[in-house]
């Protein structure tokens, strides 16, 4: 057996050092993009771009009168899917207060800044990828309490119904639990533009609206959850919410001419 010399050992360590440098570089890049200055600049640019794109959208015939619906039901829980959140700030009565639930993760900070630029308050929820299950449960419980309080005070809630990194377009129990403890209705909602780019690599197939398209907003009948609902009824209501939000989105797609 031949002895390994210093040069051989150095060569063997090269892959490990290279991997460590890549990790260090990736971490520095993440910190740069998450810094306050960069986050503020990027969020301001996204806000301006979304407003500019929305100004070019033409509402289609058959799109619902969301101002009337949400005014009549206020304060309501507006339920929609992940991947369509970029349109959410535009289908609410601007004179009514609204808040949106967002993750506590560092990646959600940019989304929070954009949402707040539209005059929508933010509630930070259960945390990011590195959060423990116990901490997530605590964060989720605190978020539910905060949203119940806001609803009691007259602030509507905009809530993404499906669970991050879970099954897209399948409502979680959070939205029906909030309806149960608050006594406020869930308004199943969908908004679709005829011109958009789908981020295929995203778990939720995020749709980025493009200029000069047609837009449709559809809202289904309000869904109420009794205060004494047991686990079985909550599951029934969860499925009802899933079907209603999906139906609203399918109808919005039909109105703008999207067929699947």
UniProtKB/TrEMBL annotation:
Residues 92-166 form the DUF374 domain. GO terms for molecular function: acyltransferase activity. InterPro entries: DUF374 (IPR007172). It comes from the Bacteria. Keywords: Acyltransferase, Transferase. Residues 1-24 are annotated as: Disordered. This is Lysophospholipid acyltransferase family protein.
